[in-house]
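User: I'm writing a tutorial on reading structure tokens. Could you give me a worked example: one chain, its sequence, then its tokens, then a sentence or two explaining what the tokens reveal?
Assistant: Sure. Here is the example chain.
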Amino acid sequence: MKASLPRLSLDLEPELSSALKELAEGVARFGEANGLSKVQIHNLSLALDELATNTISYGFAEVDRQELRVELRIEEDEVVAQLDDTGIPFNPFEEAAAPDIHAALEDRPIGGLGVFLTKTLFPDPDYQRTDGFNRISLRAPVKGDS
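And here are its predicted structure tokens:
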């Protein structure tokens, strides 16, 4: 039987390559320790990678205090991913432009699919701005390999 890791907290550096590497390793470690399916580990990693990339690339451009934390936890039968950052106030689920997924590839602008993908994988994302932090929470039922 695998040892569980009911909570994992990561304080990520605001440097893209090191943050994304640490994030991917942390999500894999957490998912494997808690018996999540490979698909669910991949989906968590992909969504958090997209959100962290946006924060580091755009959210920190005009702020001095750059903090980015990710917490993964199991609550009853759900996996919860929470991303907190001190970037500019921004609710990606309401403020990001929706991509035209029906346009021809050559007519689409680069980028813009990350938030769409996150909302597809985690249909009820939550955003709050509290005490100088953006807080994004993603929830999904725990799915193990069966």
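What the tokens reveal: Residues 70 and 83 are 5 Å apart (CA to CA). The chain has four helices and five strands.
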